[in-house]
TrEMBL record, chain A:
Localization in the cell: Cell membrane
InterPro entries for this protein: FDH_cytochrome_b556_subunit (IPR051817)
One cellular-component annotation, GO: plasma membrane
Keywords from the named record: Cell membrane, Membrane, Transmembrane, Transmembrane helix
Superkingdom: Bacteria
Name used for this protein in its record: Ni/Fe-hydrogenase cytochrome b subunit
Automatic annotation (TrEMBL), chain B:
Keyword Iron-sulfur: yes
Keyword entries, A-Z: 4Fe-4S, Iron, Iron-sulfur, Metal-binding, Repeat
GO MF, any single term: 4 iron, 4 sulfur cluster binding
Domain of life per record: Bacteria
GO CC terms: cell envelope
Name of protein: Hydrogenase
Cited Pfam families: Fer4_11
Main location: other
Compartments reported by the entry: Cell envelope
Domain 4Fe-4S ferredoxin-type: 38-68, 139-168
């Protein structure tokens, strides 16, 4: 990493208006969660025996981790394919990933009916090795740790630059040690998401007849893996663009364009794999009748194809706003496919209907909000974001950089 | 160089050990009915819908009643957190009625058991741990509340919509029929020593009977052969979804689908799902190999980069 694209602690006022809004939303969700622990899952949610996961599993876990997969997809390019030019994107992506995955894990604890029994998950002796969910749970738990370890270099670097001698000593001592060990953590950070992101698709294999045939396929794991990469690239481009608008983060349009071409390829691949699978398994007949499910199928396919075409257009590649729009669409595409496979295409049985309750929405929104808040805090105190024209190296809490109040 | 190679190896072994454990389950075979499997046979043509079994089930399992609006009468219309067994009445077009008894099917290869993370739902004698007094081969799907985290994946997985959840409790349970395993009588011989379903004991018409699955299947086929004009000619549960230990007979002109039993392929969903999910892992070899390869490549790339920059900065 060369001198001028070095990350820098943003500094500035901690309790910005955005921060206050985020904390407010989170407080609301905490109230709902607290009530849930007294009254049970039923009273705060619209979940039922037919729709046992509501939106908490499909959104809080499956979509959040999809967005958090930016750490995985960027890491693949940067470390495995040795595309060093993507380095400036890594730290924000890894922080986003660590936060998104942690929130997914926290959300699960709230959704679990018998959360006090989770300690069994740490005792491999009782594991049911056939369970796909177990694979997801064990893999995600490990990956959360790996992600925060990946965040540590930024924290230790910040500590090393600290004025406080104690922190400076810790940072200077452990930073280089961690740097030596990093390749082994990075390798784990490449393998673990490959496993659990595909398993997230694999979770719905068992639903069999309950899942609409347009979604139920042996390729669910493959599609989940492709979609997480696409969502990840989209999330990284979107995040860095937003950081550019608020904090003057380094936003190299050519870099985004290159990344987006990769993303475009993935989005096309997703649609091709899906259509070929549908045709090969004689499911074309389900495309003949226009109903609720076909509507979502078409919406999904459009959401995949529109950004895919946009990413390959020269005009879009050169236009910051349009490229950001396409990146957001690519996140939305993966998110909708995931929500469909878990919720809209899922038939909970006669007599069961589901529409998320205000309580469920409050928890989901609150979780997302606290994620934004944590990102703000870490990026203000530690060198995560690469800032344009940062001639000097990072100084914790220093620098009269724009406050985030603009957003 | 030497140290880093060794640590690379160590890392690979650590990651590999974890995945190899997961990988062990991959040699997944299709599950066959065990010779000692017990179950029930429900003959819809004999049921008169008296619902004595519903009441007796609640009594035997200590379940609360589902009060009617006036608070007088227990009338669950579906399985729920208070009800493990229910009788449904289905009106057909010709003004005829068909009765249906719904409870756990005790599948030969249950989806709920396949997905349950810590084996809280397990086939008796086949779980990851052995529970006191379990009988090998009975095939009863039992619930262990001590390892259940309440993830409700069993509800997503079950094609018969059987496991129910206590939605309004702070400390909820998964509720489903366990074939009155707790009413087993070790002093008796045969199936009664294994379990003793209250619903079968109380049924005035023997519309539902309990016994060894093999014998029940033979009895069902005998009834079909003796009275072909009375039945629709098929035993539900013999092969559906890999087979179930609860078997169903229906009257002529009544489809099992109308009774709420799904049309399932002969291959169990559990086999399909585990096969597809585990195949790429090649018994844990793939993750270990990929990890080692990734660690190697990442390290090499890092070295190159540092050499190009002349000064190694911590990431």
């Amino acid at each position: 990493m060369s001198g001028h694209d070095h990350p820098k602690a943003i500094g500035g006022k901690l309790f910005s208006p955005l921060m206050n809004v985020c904390l407010g939303l989170f407080a609301l969700s905490v109230a709902v969660m607290a009530y849930r622990f007294f009254a049970g899952v039923g009273p705060v949610s619209a979940m039922s025996d037919g729709y046992a996961w509501g939106i908490w599993e499909p959104v809080n876990v499956v979509v959040f981790t999809g967005i958090g997969a930016g750490a995985y997809s960027t890491g693949l390019l940067c470390y495995l394919l040795n595309q060093g030019k993507y380095h400036p994107l890594v730290r924000p992506a890894v922080l986003l990933g660590a936060i998104a995955y942690s929130l997914a894990g926290a959300s699960i604890l709230i959704a679990l009916g018998r959360y006090w029994n989770v300690y069994w998950l740490f005792l491999p002796g009782v594991w049911n090795l056939g369970s796909v969910l177990l694979e997801v749970a064990a893999c995600v738990m490990t990956y959360v740790m790996v992600l925060w370890i990946e965040v540590l270099p930024a924290v230790l670097e910040g500590a090393a630059d600290s004025k406080h001698p104690f922190w400076a000593k810790i940072g200077k001592k452990w930073g280089p040690v961690l740097a030596k060990a990093m390749p082994y953590f990075i390798a784990a950070a490449m393998i673990l998401p490959t496993m659990h992101q595909s398993s997230l698709g694999g979770l719905m294999l068992i639903a069999g007849p309950k899942l609409n045939p347009l979604w139920h396929t042996a390729l669910l794991p493959t599609l989940a893996l492709i979609s997480c990469l696409a969502m990840g690239y989209g999330a990284v481009v979107a995040l860095t663009n937003i950081l550019h608008m608020t904090w003057n983060a380094k936003a190299d349009q050519r870099l985004f364009a290159d990344l987006s071409k990769v993303n475009g390829g993935l989005l096309f691949l997703f649609v091709v794999v899906r259509l070929v699978d549908i045709a090969a398994h004689g499911k074309l007949k389900y495309l003949g009748v226009f109903d609720f499910h076909l509507f979502f199928f078409l919406l999904e396919t459009a959401l995949f194809l529109v950004p895919a075409f946009m990413f390959f257009s020269k005009k879009v590649q050169q236009n910051r706003g349009k490229l950001l729009g396409a990146a957001l669409l690519s996140i939305l595409a993966g998110a909708l496919w995931r929500i469909d496979a878990y919720l809209t295409a899922y038939n909970g049985g006669d007599g069961f209907e589901y529409m998320p309750s205000l309580g469920e929405i409050a928890v989901t929104v609150g979780m997302a909000a606290v994620g934004v808040a944590v990102f703000l805090v870490v990026a203000r105190f530690f060198p995560v974001v690469v800032v344009d024209d940062a001639r000097d190296h990072s100084h914790v809490g220093a620098g009269q950089v724009q406050a985030a109040a603009g957003r | 160089m030497r140290i880093s190679r060794r640590s690379l190896l160590k890392g690979a072994v650590a990651a590999g050990a974890a995945t190899a454990v997961v990988g062990r389950a991959e040699a997944r075979e299709k599950r066959e009915v065990e010779a000692e499997a017990v179950g029930m046979l429900y003959d819809s043509t004999l049921c008169i819908g008296c619902r004595a079994c519903v009441t007796k089930c609640k009594e035997a399992n200590g379940l609360p009643y589902d009060r009617s609006a006036d608070g007088l009468y227990d009338q669950p219309d579906d399985l729920n957190g208070n009800t493990k067994n229910v009788i449904k009445v289905l009106a057909s077009e010709g003004g005829q009625y068909a009765f249906m008894k719904q409870q756990c099917m005790h599948c030969v290869d249950p989806s709920c058991v396949s997905v349950c993370m810590m084996g809280a739902l397990h086939k008796e004698g086949q779980g990851t741990r052995h529970h006191d007094g379990e009988v090998r081969g009975s095939g009863i799907v039992l619930y262990d509340k001590n390892t259940c985290v309440g993830c409700r994946y069993c509800q997503i997985a079950c094609p018969y919509l059987i496991p129910k959840f206590e939605w309004t409790k702070a400390f909820p349970l998964i509720v489903k029929c366990e074939l009155c395993r707790h009413r087993a009588d070790p002093k008796k011989a045969g199936p009664l020593a294994v379990a003793n379903p209250a619903c079968c004991e109380v049924c005035p018409r023997e519309a539902v009977v309990y016994g060894k699955r093999a014998e029940l299947l033979a009895e069902a086929k005998r009834r079909l052969a003796a009275n072909p004009q009375k039945y629709n000619g098929h035993v539900y549960g013999e092969v559906e979804g890999g087979g179930t230990q609860v078997l169903y007979l229906a009257a002529k002109g009544v489809e099992f689908k109308q009774l709420g039993l799904p049309e399932l392929p002969e291959e169990s969903q559990a086999y399909f799902s585990e096969h597809v999910s585990h195949m790429p892992y090649l018994n844990g070899i793939t993750p270990i190999a990929l990890y080692a390869a990734a660690a190697f490549v990442v390290r090499r790339n890092r070295k190159k980069e540092e050499a190009a920059e002349h000064h190694g900065e911590g990431k």
